[in-house]
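Re: your question from the hallway

Yes, I did run it. Sequences:
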Amino acid sequence: DAGVIQSPRHEVTEMGQEVTLRCKPISGHDYLFWYRQTMMRGLELLIYFNNNVPIDDSGMPEDRFSAKMPNASFSTLKIQPSEPRDSAVYFCAQPAEQGNTGELFFGEGSRLTVL
Amino acid sequence: EDQVTQSPEALRLQEGESSSLNCSYTVSGLRGLFWYRQDPGKGPEFLFTLYSAGEEKEKERLKATLTKKESFLHITAPKPEDSATYLCAPRTDKLIFGTGTRLQVFP
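Structure:
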């Protein structure tokens, strides 16, 4: 079991470009979370899914952000168009055990830089 | 509004010098308080869960305690490998992370 796998690990893009971040979670777990981490604001919850259905997207900053989970093995976070203020580390996370939404297992993150 | 404050923001300790990190919170409907450790370039790693005031959890040189408004992470005789950022996160319907305490332990 390789854990939560995120790609790309690093992305540098120019303002206005579309960015797609990917997460391959551990199969069979019910929840999936997307977080964003910056120095100023720390770790912020963007959206989470339960059984592939988006439950709470109130943390998504604006309509430029969208997330999908087409099946239990894959999720994407898309930013279109990207802006410099989107520069951050984006994490995908899952419960370490079914239903325990406090004890999370995080991927290693995707560091996004928008120029 | 739910709020979490961690202090200090940064802490430098000599190896063996014990200290405590603070997590103050104001949340509605607390369903546990969680501590995580984060190393540079990595995702946070779960350490402890505390559910009720007075509860304590220990792991090696770390001990976490909980009151109704605060949690403390006590570090006894730290070693350089304890250097990391420590995050606390009270949970309501979701985790609310503090901005962390960056701990550096020097030999």
